[in-house]
Design a protein that fits this description.
mainly alpha; 20 helices
């Protein structure tokens, strides 16, 4: 049986429901979340500015990159499940994280400075695009293939390091009564990273505007950002190592403390690879969780790419785009912290279902507002002129607000409720089930959105704006399916909690 929930005053419950003796466990986990989100923010802003503003590219190339990200995620899942049978939890964490450290360091100092030598000539890329217009975006990616690899690995950071490594670690060492109090505050601490990273990006991009014209300001920004990413990777490894040595060896913080550091067999899943896949994909519980991730990924991808196509038209320069994304990250961090502070009691007071249902409703409503404006943009030039701006600027701002509110709701409610749902599961489902749902399900969502746009763009040989009406219809359908999945999972989660209490 797990320890009973600690008793706090209403004021303490609202402000800081963490006991002093729990700080040794909570603070390093909060720092891990902070550093993971810091790198996620830097990499997200960098990958978008890098690939969207690259020669012969645009927001449309993201659509053609998503299937590649999905393939890499599937390959990672196969490798991860095999490694989880042969490596202990701690070693597995290092093996998954360290390759990111080496690649992003190498990109800044060995790959980007010699990009012109590594990439094919722009003239040959332009010739191929004209000869094969239906696959012109694939050809554009061929022309900047090293940037495409950077984009893929930056995308995988979120799903591998945050969704899998961090949350799997948190779910294993956090008791259910702790998770109700800890998880929202992990997000609260972590989202200060968006503010700091966004401010750093905006400051650096602004500073580099004063560099001489013959200096690659974007290259300077990129170098500094990758130095920060590598440094943070080292900090993540150090904190994880320290926790395994000085926190998880104490039964006060970890129920399985006696087994830490003994042998790798202690924490290994017991089923074979084939048995694990069969077990995972026959689970209705995991199937509903996968629908949640698929729905979020598809919906946000369809909105995100359309918004970034508007942003690219508004800010074609890489450094300007990078600066805007820094400001966007800062605003996202502020909004998320406000949402966490105002919604953190929802799960505890109204239950898991209420906390989980808010995100799909928010995505549906804000997406409807954004697409309505994009589709009616030509009819709103008079209003925009009256306000002293362009209709393109208004589309960019409304899209930014949609992204900020949707991502803020994700961090404050979607992620905590999703991760809480893993806690009462058996160890096999916690390890390999989470890998399947988060790595494959999470990536399949974004790749599914990418594939939808890929098909529409290929068939029409058009632009992101021309396929916007179809995209919103798909978002509406997916959001309604998401709401139904939340309802079904809520019943199963409640039953699992009762089962866990009776063990």
């Amino acid at each position: 049986m797990s320890p009973q929930d600690p008793k706090f005053s209403k004021f303490r419950t609202a402000l800081w429901p963490i006991q002093n003796k729990e700080l040794k466990k909570f603070l390093p986990m909060g720092l891990l979340m902070f550093f993971c989100l810091f790198n996620y923010t830097i990499l997200r802003n960098t990958k978008d500015a890098l690939i969207i503003t690259a020669p012969a590219c645009g927001a449309e190339v993201i659509t053609f990159l998503k299937p590649c990200v999905m393939v890499c995620a599937v390959l990672f899942f196969f490798g991860y499940t095999q490694l989880s049978n042969n490596l202990g939890r701690e070693t597995l964490f290092y093996v998954c994280l360290i390759p990111f450290l080496f690649f992003f360091g190498a990109f800044a100092f060995l790959i980007y400075p010699y990009a012109e030598l590594l990439h094919p000539p722009l003239e040959s890329v332009a010739t191929l695009r004209e000869a094969y217009p239906n696959v012109k975006w694939f050809i554009s990616l061929y022309g900047v293939w090293s940037y495409a690899i950077f984009y893929i690995l930056a995308e995988l950071w979120g799903v591998i390091v945050i969704s899998l490594l961090f949350w799997q670690f948190a779910n294993e060492i956090t008791r259910t009564n702790e998770a109700k109090r800890f998880y929202s505050f992990f997000g609260l601490v972590g989202n200060f990273a968006l503010i700091i990273a966004g401010t750093s990006v905006e400051w650096l991009a602004g500073l580099n505007k004063n560099l001489p014209s013959d200096v690659d300001a974007w290259g300077v920004s990129l170098t500094y950002m990758m130095i920060a990413v590598v440094t943070v990777c080292v900090a993540i490894l150090a904190i994880y190592w320290w926790m395994n040595r000085y926190v998880l060896t104490d039964p006060l913080y970890y129920a399985a403390a006696e087994s830490v550091g003994k042998t790798k067999e202690d924490n290994r899943p017991k089923l074979s690879f084939r048995e694990s896949l069969s077990y995972i994909f026959s689970s209705r519980y995991l199937g509903l969780m996968a629908i949640l991730l698929l729905s979020f990924g598809i919906s946000m991808n369809l909105v995100d790419v359309t918004w970034k196509s508007q942003l690219k038209a508004y800010l074609p320069n890489s450094n300007d785009y990078f600066e805007f994304m820094g400001r966007f990250s800062y605003c996202t961090g502020i909004a998320t912290i406000v949402l966490i502070l105002t919604t953190k009691g929802i799960i505890r007071r109204f239950g898991w279902f209420t906390g989980a249902i808010i995100t799909p409703v928010m995505v549906l409503v804000t997406s409807a507002a954004f697409f309505a404006f994009v589709l009616l943009q030509d009819n709103l030039d008079g209003i925009a002129a009256f306000l002293g701006v362009t209709s393109l600027f208004m589309a960019v701002m409304i899209g930014a607000i949609q992204n900020i509110l949707s991502k803020g709701t994700k961090y404050s409610l979607f992620d905590p409720t999703k991760e809480m749902a893993y806690i009462p599961l058996e160890q096999e489902l916690k390890v390999k089930g989470k890998a399947a749902v988060d790595v494959i399900g999470g990536r399949l969502g974004k790749s599914g959105g990418g594939m939808i746009q890929f098909i529409l763009l290929t068939l029409t040989a058009g632009s992101q704006l021309s396929i916007a009406p179809y995209l919103f219809g798909i978002i509406a359908f997916v959001s309604l399916s998401w709401i139904c999945a939340v309802k079904g999972l809520s019943k199963l989660y409640t039953a699992k909690l009762v089962e866990q209490e009776n063990r």
